[in-house]
TrEMBL record:
This is WD40 repeat-like protein. It comes from Polychaeton citri CBS 116435. Pfam families: WD40. Residues 395-405 have a biased composition (Acidic residues). Transmembrane segments: none annotated. InterPro entries: SWT21/TCAB1_mRNA_Telomere, WD40/YVTN_repeat-like_dom_sf, WD40_repeat_dom_sf, WD40_rpt. Residues 1-26, 381-425 are annotated as: Disordered. Coiled coil: none annotated.
Length: 442
């Protein structure tokens, strides 16, 4: 009940997203940290090989009570916001990790239930997909409890396939899983059953014979029920009826401002604009789906020239909507009403959120607070372990860099309070990275 009170307190604010279209200095202290979760520092001895925290992604739950975070090391963590979140305090409040689900192999994708309600344990669920296992439905309140599993098996090799992206339908009665250039639809109530339907994107028809590529991300326009799927070959496909219908269109990102594959998609609240972000690109492309997927504008200045996935998120505002994204420079940036001009559009506001790349910038559903998370650019640091022998290394980092692998939440303008970060120790003994969740408010 205390958590429920926190939701009502935050939702009651209903603050306008404070994006100044006139542009602001990055050092403007509009945002201040009101809450954080910091794990107790652990000293690693010379022979230890413990993976340090590394936040890849974070999502607010639909009711705004909690944050679900994807962490390197096969973990999904849930955090419940404190009931006194917006009450004045001289120091950031403490956010306690409520639960952690650890899978036996790397998590490839996850999705939170669209009707998540902390007061109803039957709705505090999320999907997670990992290698060599069925897709599983877990409960955030009971981390060891598995509600259901949904096998997706290769018909030739009889091995489990791990979706690269998952998304729930609007009603929560079904979900869509993406494998290669195909999407699969599952009935959430059919525990132990495989997909009820599938659809492959026909390259020969829609892409002029070129390969569509591996689907890396999906996003659902809940206003019109159109599902967008983006591939690492820079292609986008649109499906009707919450992903249960046919593929109605495909198109390719323009070569100008070319990146290295689509890793994040977002819809404007009214379903007019589709926004696409890539790896190794400082830009976000904006398309008007009403007019033959017309390329409208380019949002510049994201600072995301990296193989690391830095996500984007879209939130409604009193003036329309806002795109938020993080950069490799530790900044969180916002663009107000993308698509309002048929040209390049720089960020309208930015602030320093972390010392490391910001992987997620997400708004509370009520608009009162904002959360950010960060991760060192590359593999999670391992104590005294050669990264070349640990597999799946995307990008090695300097062990001497200060680490700030954290999640943060910000209420929507006063002085910015930096969450204390304990630096690493020497080569033989060093401290674990601070594992924190920050919440910010203006």
């Amino acid at each position: 009940m205390a958590a429920a009170a926190a939701v009502h307190a935050v939702d009651g604010e209903q603050k306008t997203l404070p994006v100044d279209e006139g542009g602001k200095d990055a050092n403007d202290s509009r945002y201040h940290c009101v809450a954080s979760s910091v794990a107790q520092d652990r000293i690693l001895d010379q022979t230890a090989a413990i993976e340090l925290p590394y936040f890849q992604d974070a999502q607010f739950t639909a009711d705004g009570t909690s944050i679900i975070a994807l962490c390197k090391g096969n973990r999904l963590r849930s955090y419940v916001l404190p009931p006194d979140l917006l009450e004045p305090s001289s120091q950031p409040k403490h956010i306690v990790q409520y639960s952690e689900t650890t899978l036996g192999s790397p998590i490839q994708s996850y999705a939170t239930y669209p009707d998540y309600q902390l007061q109803d344990p039957s709705k505090t669920v999320y999907l997670a997909a990992s290698r060599d296992q069925p897709i599983k439905l877990y409960n955030a309140l009971y981390c060891n409890y598995q509600h259901a599993s949904y096998p997706l098996i290769d018909q030739y090799t009889e091995v489990y396939l791990a979706p690269s992206s998952l998304v729930f339908g609007s009603s929560g009665q079904h979900f869509i899983a993406a494998i290669s250039d195909r999407i699969y639809a599952f009935d959430i109530s059919r525990d132990g059953h495989g997909p009820k339907a599938s659809c492959r994107i026909s390259s020969s028809i829609h892409m002029g014979g070129s390969t569509f590529g591996l689907i890396k991300t999906m996003s659902l326009d809940r206003y019109h029920g159109v599902l967008a799927a983006g591939s690492l070959q820079r292609n986008i496909a649109l499906f009707e009826n919450d992903g249960l219908g046919a593929c109605i269109a495909t198109f390719k990102l323009p070569d100008e401002h070319r990146g290295n594959g689509i890793t994040s998609l977002g819809w404007s609240p009214d379903g007019t604009y589709l926004l696409a972000a890539e790896r190794q690109s400082d830009c976000t492309q904006v398309f008007d789906v009403r007019y033959l997927r017309r390329h409208v504008s380019v949002l510049t200045g994201r600072k995301a020239k990296t193989p690391q996935v830095l996500g984007i998120s879209v939130s409604p505002s009193d003036e329309g909507f806002v795109l938020s994204a993080g950069g490799t420079d530790g900044m969180a940036r916002m663009w107000s009403n993308p698509g309002r001009i048929d040209d390049t559009q720089p960020p309208d506001f930015e602030f320093k959120a972390h010392d490391n790349p910001v992987t997620s910038v997400i708004w509370h559903p009520g608009g009162a607070v904002i959360a950010t998370c960060s991760a060192v650019d590359g593999m999670p640091h391992m104590a005294n372990v050669d990264p070349d022998n640990n597999g799946n290394t995307e990008n090695d980092s300097d062990d001497n860099d200060e680490s700030d692998d954290s999640i943060g939440v910000i209420p929507l303008g006063t002085q910015h309070h930096k969450v204390p970060i304990t630096p690493r120790a020497s080569t033989s003994h060093r401290l674990a990275a601070t594992d924190s969740l920050k919440i910010w408010s203006p």
